[in-house]
């Protein structure tokens, strides 16, 4: 089975971000970048499926500038077999990213597409559902357990009240939640091996897509800041403050 | 033209998130139609019709929609979308699962987690775990929005019921099948809409000791939340998680016990009105946003807290 894993290069989750002074976005110059944590979980899940069945082939794909090759090399070091970069300097909304990935899916014909449930920069939580819609495939979002059978999958999803289990036929799109697995670290030999794996570069312009603009970002601002309050020294003082000062008890 | 709100429900009752979503829909200043799609869900339609501000309820009652699977629901909504210039759903797991599928079918963008409506085409929403607010203008004719429920007041007022229109739409059913639900049982208020939330973190050390948080919550009539660390360590189920990847809450009072205050956790609770932190590490980042901080061992402080609350009753 062919498994396509979509990954994204984002600001490292542990970096404290800064909004640009002119409110045009967030500072990304000289800032540590990493693979989106949910995508690492998607790669790990694909690798675990391959460890159970050696016939599987894992293809990592990303859309972005040249620097996104690092993210693909990381996916290769974690166990992906080959990688595809759709190279572009343009910034796209989720729907257009889904349309670009759709082109790669049509070319590669995978039976399963694994993606993170959301990227930690845009926090949109849209692209997997949109890709599934464009392909007219079933979708299993926020997966915390995935079982692959012959021509179908069973997925346990994290929902607000607890868990929900669904079955659906392949091909399908699955988006990963944090609880799906614990991603491994790339070992040094695997990082070295990853350098020799195939990384194809497809220029965005050669895909033959004419994508229209759907949203326009007007501004990016810092949220209202909360000021630190006071420290109390005892439980009774705390209860007093909550009752008479804050009036929330 | 009018606005469509997708009602979240369990075929018996409306989920309270729908009432917040309706509030956002009314801000768009068009007639609001509520869509109730499910199976044997007449009661839900009747409840919806009586919420102040509802202009009409469209009821689609068919076994195909019993579990409101995204594939079937998206087919249905796409088929009726032509009558609307805005389609809204709560930014709950239900809305997040469904609405992007609808958006792509309509070749329209979606704005996720809308926290403010500026104009009928311009919206604010948080990005980077709430560390930046992005204002976007939607260029598509139809606006597809998931609504951050804590940013809009729930509509609790009633009206004399508006009309319920039964519609029948046959769709091409997908291969997706519902197998089962495993829902957490709790007598406590719902986490996302509770007035008081008590959350525990890694500092609780074990499932047994986490009971202390539940006792404090019960003494306050509060909901129980948790940090990712507490969920990953297995102290509580994952639907307790508050944060960027869990639930977003904004209660009047949020009490964080044994939680350091990582960026991802703050993303889920920093819009709370009053924040209390109880932590033995006085340098914990949670103290930088807490209105009231108490430095101390939670295993001494929390039992004392419970005792004094009971005594004052």
UniProtKB/TrEMBL annotation, chain A:
Names of required cofactors: AMP
Chaperone listed as a keyword: no
MF annotations from Gene Ontology: electron transfer activity
Any single biological process term in GO: carboxylic acid catabolic process
Keywords, ordered alphabetically: Electron transport, Transport
Domain called Electron transfer flavoprotein alpha/beta-subunit N-terminal: residue spans: 23-211
Domain of life (superkingdom): Bacteria
Function: The electron transfer flavoprotein serves as a specific electron acceptor for other dehydrogenases. It transfers the electrons to the main respiratory chain via ETF-ubiquinone oxidoreductase (ETF dehydrogenase).
Complexes and interactors: Heterodimer of an alpha and a beta subunit.
Protein family per UniProt: Belongs to the ETF beta-subunit/FixA family.
Name used for this protein in its record: Electron transfer flavoprotein subunit beta
Taxonomic classification: Bacteria, Pseudomonadati, Pseudomonadota, Gammaproteobacteria, Legionellales
UniProtKB/TrEMBL annotation, chain B:
Record's cofactor remark: Binds 1 FAD per dimer.
Cofactor: FAD
Protein's GO biological process: fatty acid beta-oxidation using acyl-CoA dehydrogenase
Binding site for FAD: 202, 227-228, 241-245, 258-265, 279
Pfam families linked: ETF, ETF_alpha
Annotated family: Belongs to the ETF alpha-subunit/FixB family.
Species of provenance: Legionella jamestowniensis
GO molecular function (one): electron transfer activity
Domain Electron transfer flavoprotein alpha/beta-subunit N-terminal: 3-182
Record's function text: The electron transfer flavoprotein serves as a specific electron acceptor for other dehydrogenases. It transfers the electrons to the main respiratory chain via ETF-ubiquinone oxidoreductase (ETF dehydrogenase).
InterPro entries: DHS-like_NAD/FAD-binding_dom, ETF_a/b_N, ETF_a/FixB, ETF_alpha_N, ETF_asu_C, ETF_asu_C_CS, Rossmann-like_a/b/a_fold
Keywords: Electron transport, FAD, Flavoprotein, Transport
Identification of the protein by name: Electron transfer flavoprotein subunit alpha
Alphabetical list of SMART domains matching this protein: ETF
Keyword Mitochondrion: no
